[in-house]
Amino acid sequence: MSILQRLFSWKIHALVLVLVCVAEFIGQKNFSIGIGTVALFPMLYALLIGSVISLPSLKILSEKNMNIAANILGISFMLFVAKLGTLMGPSIPKLLDAGFSLTFQEFGHFLGTIIIGLPIALLIGMRREAIGATFSIDREPNLAIIAEKYGADSPEGRGALGVYVCGTLFGAVYLSVIASLIASTGFFHPISLAMGAGVGSGSMMAAMTGAITAIYPESGNDIAVFAGAANLITTIVGTFVCIFISLPLTNFLYKYLSPILGKRPENQESSLEKLNG
C-alpha cells in the first residue's frame, strides 16, 4: 500500500470538510468578560468539535482513522509553514531588526515551564515525571530529546508525553483565550504578542495568531510573519537550548526541590518503577 493510499480516508476528509463548513458558518465571535475581550474564531470551533467526535465512546473514529489524521496533520503544517515563508521573504529587513528579540524570547519559553511548572509538578505528587513534563512545552523535538536520553517508557518519557497529549488536546484552545485576553488589554505591542505566540507548536501558534489578529486586524500580516519567525527560531534554537540548558537546569533543580516539595514517598516511586519495568 502506497503512502498516498495510507493517508487517504474518505471518512477523515468528509469529516474535515463538514468541520470547516460548520466552523466558517459560525464565524468569528467576540465578547467582553470585563477584563478584556475574548475572540473565538473558526479554528477554535473546529478543534472543539473534533475533540468531541474523536471520543472513543462515540465510535465515530477508529484508532486507525486517528493515526491517518495525525499523519495528514504533519503534511498540513508543512504547507502552513511554506505559506509563512512567503510572508517572511518581503519582511526580512524587519526580522533582522528584531533578530535579538526573537532569539532572546526563547529563554522565556523554557524558564516559565521550569520555574513555575516544576514546583507545582512536585507539589501534586510527580517525581521524575516532572523533569520530562516541565523542561519545555514538550512538542515533537522535545519528546525526541527525552526519548533519546531516558527512553520513551521512562518516568521522564511519561511526563513529557503526558504534557504533549494535553498540549495537543487543550493547548490551542487555552492559549487562544489567553492571547485574546492579553491582547485586548492593550499593554503589549502586537508584534511582541506575535513573537510570544511562537512557542514551537504550529497549532498553538496558529490559534494565538488568530486571536491576536482579531484584536489587531490592521497588523495581521506582521503578526503572522513575526509569529512564524519566532516559531521557527524556537524550533531550531530551542532544541539546542533544551539539550544544553533547560534539561540540565531542570535536573539540577529537581535534585534540590524534590526532597522539599515532593509528596510521593520514595517506596511508592520504586513500586511504580517495578510495575512499569
Order of helices and strands: HHEEHHHHHHHHHHH
Going across the major beta sheet, what is the strand order? 1-2
| Tally of contiguous helical segments | 13
Oligomer: single chain
Q: What is the number of beta strands? A: 2
Report mean pLDDT, rounded to a whole number.
77
Give the overall shape, derived from the CA principal axes: globular
What is the CA–CA distance across the termini? 36 Å
Major β-sheet, in short? 2 strands, antiparallel
Question: Which spans of ≥5 residues are poorly predicted at pLDDT below 50?
Answer: 266-277
| Integer-rounded radius of gyration | 20 Å
Supply the helix-strand structural class.
mainly alpha
The helix content is over 70%
Strand content: under 5%
Q: How would you describe the overall organization of this protein?
A:
By secondary structure, the chain is mostly helical. The protein is 77% helix and 3% strand. Helix 3 packs antiparallel against helix 9, helix 9 packs parallel to helix 11 (202-215) and helix 10 (190-197) packs antiparallel against helix 11 (202-215). The longest helix has 42 residues, at 220-261. Mean pLDDT is 77; it is low at 266-277.
Topology at a glance:
Blueprint: H1 3-7, H2 10-26, E1 29-32, E2 37-40, H3 42-53, H4 63-88, H5 92-97, H6 99-123, H7 129-134, H8 140-149, H9 155-185, H10 190-197, H11 202-215, H12 220-261, H13 266-276
Antiparallel strand pairs: 1-2
